[in-house]
Design brief:
Elements lengths: L1 H10 L2 H14 L3 H8 L3 H7 L2 H5 L15 H12 L3 H14 L3 H13 L3 H13 L10 H13 L3 H13 L7 H30 L19 H11 L2 H6 L21 E2 L7 E2 L2 H15 L3 H4 L26 E3 L2 E3 L4
Antiparallel strand pairs: 1-2, 3-4
Helix pairs in contact: 6-7, 7-8, 7-13, 8-9, 9-10, 10-11, 11-12
């Protein structure tokens, strides 16, 4: 009977097995779901590493843990990149840029993902441009950051929509437009609330009782964290002393994982000056989760000087784009900006 079953498997054409493996790699909930199948037999291992299978791998299939990082894991991600996997380009790009400090290679991989309209990659590149990550403060390119952020927002990335709204409200890298900025901020909040409505509906159905909607734990908005952010949180959590020794800080939103690439790269909270963020999106998430109850009241911080005040000149100093050309978004493209 065992021999018969083996013969039945061997009789399957390679194309059928590859099709099944493509479905598995695109829907797996963890790397082990996929890797365990590759260990079944030599044929399965060979077909599992077929470029078509690797090109379909989803982010959870590529969700390598930082504690398990090794040359074999790096090689597997490179195989996926060479197979044309957009998600692998983004994940390996982030790891190389922030964790391995290979800025050029990391940015190049993220750019390849961005060209294929990968919203998180576009947003990450926008933050690199806004913060001047990997270079000096003068290396910031606010107009390029705005253009990348606008494209990511058009693709539905909520944090990009929020960042874009603040840019328009503050005139940060773009001509100020309070009305449009406010509209985008409302849209970002509405999308976040809409994302938890299915959870809320399920809770009401299962518990069969009414409760105050404001008592619902809207922190669940952040339940799905991208695997590369989980990787960076774990990676730098194991190496936190090395960062602090260089005078660098992590983004205070615990589920982001981005570190500073130079001193005073991130902006501090204007209220307490004790926390710092790589973006407006992280600031909004962290405020909702816990910082709103930790931030010092206005009586405490009013009149005090924030240590990195030089980083705040983006609102009124040289960072602001001044011009009489209007900027808009038409069919996902930014118009009125020369790139």
């Amino acid at each position: 009977m065992k021999k018969l079953r083996s013969d039945l498997f061997e009789s399957l054409h390679d194309d059928i097995v590859i099709c099944i493996l493509c479905k598995l790699s695109s829907t797996a909930s963890s790397p082990s779901d996929f890797i365990s199948v590759l260990h079944t037999c030599k044929r399965m291992n060979k077909l599992g590493l077929h470029p078509l299978v690797l090109s379909k791998s989803c982010s959870e299939t590529l969700a390598i843990r930082a504690k398990n990082w090794c040359e074999e894991a790096h090689r597997f991600l490179k195989l996926c990149v060479n197979s044309g996997n957009t998600e692998a380009n983004y994940i390996l790009g982030m790891i190389r840029f922030y964790c391995l400090q290979n800025r050029t290679s990391g940015a190049s991989l993220m750019a390849k993902a961005a060209v294929r309209s990968h919203a998180p990659a576009l947003y990450s590149l926008a933050l690199i441009q806004f913060n001047g990550s990997g270079g000096l403060k003068n290396d910031k390119d606010l107009r390029a950051g705005f253009a990348l952020c606008a494209r990511s927002a058009f693709l539905g990335h909520v944090n990009a929509i929020r960042e874009l709204g603040h840019c328009l409200q503050d005139g940060y890298g773009v001509r100020k437009n309070l009305t449009e900025g406010r509209r985008l901020l409302v849209q970002a909040n509405a999308r976040e609330v809409a994302s938890v409505l299915p959870i809320l509906e399920n809770k009401l159905f299962n518990e069969n009782k009414l409760f105050n909607v404001y008592e619902f734990n809207f922190n669940r908005i952040n339940e799905h964290i991208h695997p590369v952010n989980r990787f960076m949180v774990e990676w730098f959590g194991l190496r936190e002393k090395g960062l602090s020794g260089q005078g660098l800080r992590m983004c205070s939103y615990k589920e982001c994982g981005r570190p500073e690439t130079r001193r005073n790269e991130f902006r501090r909270c204007s209220g307490c000056g004790k926390v710092n963020y790589c973006s407006r999106g992280c600031q909004a998430h962290d405020w909702r989760v816990h910082h709103k109850v930790e931030c010092a009241p206005i009586e405490v911080w009013m009149g005090h000087t924030v240590d990195d005040v030089e980083e705040e000149d983006n609102m009124n100093g040289d960072d602001r784009f001044v011009g009489d050309r209007t900027v808009g978004i038409v069919d996902g493209e930014v118009v009125g900006i020369d790139m």
